[in-house]
Amino acid sequence: MTVIDPNGTGLHADAVRALSAWSVADADQEQLRRDYLGHLAEQPEGLYRSCLPAHITASAVVVDPDAGRVLLTLHPKVGIWLQMGGHCEPGDATLAAAALREATEESGIEGLELLSVDGMPTPVKLDRHLVRCTGKDQPENTHLDVQYVALAPAGAQALISEESLDLRWFDYDRLPELTDVSVRELVALARELTG
């Protein structure tokens, strides 16, 4: 892992660049993009768990387009099937690198590649949601999630990590009941973009 800046200012600049460069036609996604940029403008530490009541997170839905399947993790705190993802760390060089690190750690799959536009990994969706990442006895805070698509090598075998209750491949058309609307939308978008 390459460290651009141990204080994370390089990561902050990259997040601003990635969100500023991302264009989206959907009005709700555009409003979220502006909200995320506003958060970053006000919060120099806005990418880290310590920034409360909200912080940027990075995630990636892992797909195997040739097999028509998606890898989801059964999250131990939330109790539903989600894409891989989590908090940014000071060693993350870019927002995309944070998403790729999380996807690799949680899937156990080496060689994942983020979907790119013009050779640059690009977000595909934003999702704002409440969580209790500071502890179950603490107030909820807001994750400002920046979501990517990670392409798995052909025939990839997943390896469950300690961060998951379960880890499974699902056919695009047979997602488990315990998923939320956001995950279903992300999987549909990934399918469309990689189809």
From TrEMBL:
GO terms for molecular function: hydrolase activity. Keywords: Hydrolase. InterPro entries: NUDIX_hydrolase-like_dom_sf (IPR015797), NUDIX_hydrolase_dom (IPR000086). Pfam families: NUDIX. Residues 53-192 form the Nudix hydrolase domain. Its cofactor is Mg(2+). Gene3D superfamilies: Nucleoside Triphosphate Pyrophosphohydrolase. PANTHER family: GDP-MANNOSE MANNOSYL HYDROLASE (PTHR43046), MUTT_NUDIX FAMILY PROTEIN (PTHR43046:SF14). This is NUDIX hydrolase. It comes from Kitasatospora cystarginea. The lineage of its organism: Bacteria, Bacillati, Actinomycetota, Actinomycetes, Kitasatosporales.
